[in-house]
Amino acid sequence: PRPIDELTIWDDAKAMLKKARAEGIETVHERLDQQTPHCKMCELGTSCRNCTMGPCRVSEKKPLGVCGADADVIVARNFGRFVAGGAAGHSDHGRDLIEVLEAIVEGETTDYKITEEGKLRTIAGEIGIETEGRTVKEVAHDVMDEFFADFGSRRKEVSFLARVPQKRKDVWAKLGMTPRGVDREIAEMMHRTHMGCDNDAPNTLIHAARTALADGWGGSMIGTELSDVIFGTPTPRMSTANLGVIKEDQVNILVHGHNPVVSEMILAAARDPQLVARAKELGASGINVAGLCCTGNELLMRQGIPMAGNHLMTELAIITGAVEAIVVDYQCIMPSLVQISGCYHTKFIDTANKARFTGGIHYDFQPATAMTQAKEIVSLAVEGFAQRDKGRVDIPCEPIDIMTGFSNEAVIAALGGSLDPLVQAIVAGDIRGAVGIVGCNNPKIKQDSLNVGLAKELIKRDILVIATGCVTTAAGKAGLLVPEAIEMAGPGLKKICGSLGIPPVLHYGSCVDNSRIMQLCAALANTLNVDISDLPVGASSPEWYSEKAAAIGLYAVASGIQTHLGHPPHILGSKTVTNLAVAGLEDLVGAAFFIEPDPVRTAEIFDERIKAKRKALGLSE
Ligand code: SF4
Ligand code: FE2
Predict the structure, then answer these.
(1) Is 59 a domain residue?
(2) pTM for the model
């Protein structure tokens, strides 16, 4: 096996990897070793299994599949389906929030409620729903109908396109890239990539971009906004991160996955006095709910619960031996967690019919019965405390402070009611630009080396960093999410963040919350009366791994934002597709991808771009 020092930059991870090896437990890293080398054709994207005349693998020697598809067609089709998978994930998550809103409006649940009536009315106004003199239920009903319709086929464009600058919408209209219905674009991508349909790679990629845009400005944005309406709009608050948030003397419940619908209810149930009393009866001092990945981000942003870790920490958190239950909803949950839970007293509990795990304890979580089910789940965890093997517990560190809760609403409030002070700071050059660093870990990359490395390089150059998803815990563990981190920033950023008492890296939420960044960019562009592609901004997913990350990257690019990836998707087998991704898209949508494994070089490329964009806006470099 590879030396542990090469796998991660974190001490808490190294300690648990050592413990895993000592206890004979395999993790993602050993499984990667077993899978290496990967199939070359699959890496290049030139293998196709879309019909039973195949499967086919094309190469210079055998350039065509049985049907005649060449490398360009095969790569484009594979990438299109990859993006569709990602858009489907985020957007189906968004739909689940509409269904909770429906359950509220129809009176089927009292466990969830409309917490932010003001935000609901603002959204309604934006998408053209009458709010004057109407009850909150009436407005909510129409918002619900409108959002459900956004998923279907009858709309010309998804409703949140109301937020997009006209110039950008004109670009999309000209290219046939305007996202219509979320499900429609995803289904059409599956159709196009059926054998014998869209056999023109650039045309397939245009639709891939449209599919991604339906996610970013559709399903994801609906997910974010309705989560705020139902659970509250995040406001700045302090919390903690790393494996030290797991408490030796408490019942530990980890929530993992993406959707706050389950995890919010678990958190509420964990505060039930009877369950806390039972935990104490069994010798624990309380019940501790900590987050993993994005459902952790959701609770961190709104409720300030601590973060145990990001993607590559999920297995390691269980290996502390102090986790009574891991409660999951969907996405990014390694099935290995069931196996590793089985090595301890940990109960693995899944909660969604669309994401079941063989060997897990299953609850069909529903809005109408949510609190009852959540209490049953918490009770299972509490009873599990008695089975903990104290001799196998090792919590390797003390937690680190982080600041969270930067929704656009909170940022605007902190700025005194409008974006103008931010615009002024950008114009003055104190903040030269901004880059969203988002996404995942990938065991092919030393954990968080690029996530953290890039963030540090950017803030040095007075480039504000906005973090979401698994980059959050990385930035937090590196000490970048506290106001004191301005000491690592350049002079301008230090001045502005220092005066506001905020960190130079702002935690903006989960992966669906990348829609908050899109909304911010649109608002900045509208304020300056320019297109999003004119802004001195960038996006990066240094350690990405998932289909969802590909969809995010593509909607960022299609929205006009230059986007960095730390390693390429499986497209290099086609020159046409690769050139379009890293160059050709620039001419079409005013932005493209760049692939760069080195964080310093990446920061330099962003810096150059930001200089050029600032110059074009008539600003100092
Ligand atoms: Fe082969 Fe074409 Fe079938 Fe793909 S669609 S498996 S390239 S015959
Ligand atoms: Fe995520």
Answers:
(1) no
(2) 0.98
